[in-house]
Amino acid sequence: MFKEKVFKKSLLKTLRSSTTGEYTGGVYNYKDYFTSHGVESGFESSLQMSQDGRSGIVLLSNQYKANPSIGLLTNQLYKQLITLNR
Predict the structure, then answer these.
(1) Are strands 43-50 and 27-30 parallel, antiparallel or unpaired?
(2) Is 37 left (phi over 0), alpha (psi -120 to 50) or beta?
(3) In angstroms, rounded to a whole number, what is the distance separating the alpha carbons of residues 27 and 30?
(4) Residue 38 CA: distances (Å) to CA of 17, 24, 58, 75
(5) Backbone φ, ψ for residue 32 (5° rounding)
(6) How far apart are CA 79 and CA 43, in angstroms?
């Protein structure tokens, strides 16, 4: 998506016009990153990625536990990654 093979950048920008955590374009958008989380048939997935697509964390699990969710772990790991890259 970031190399315009799926969408043109202008369309992606329209889909992700929010920067306040609103759900648009299939993800929750924030100023510097976007995040997504899903649970289906006992499997759980979570991702958090910089808006430019250069840094990110993707976690996949073959079991779902509501507490703690891997969404929280994804966020914590992403913050550590960003801190290391500065």
Answers:
(1) unpaired
(2) beta
(3) 10
(4) 22, 15, 12, 14
(5) -105, -10
(6) 24
What single DSSP character describes residue 16? T
Joined tokens for residue 47: 């991702």
Quote the pTM value.
0.74
* Cross-sheet strand order for the sheet of 20-24: 20-24, 27-30, 33-40, 43-50, 56-61
Percent helix, strand, coil in the chain, to 5, is 25, 35, 40
**10-49: per-residue pLDDT in tens?**
776 766 677 777 777 778 889 889 999 988 888 999 999 9
Peptide bond into 68 cis (omega under 30): yes
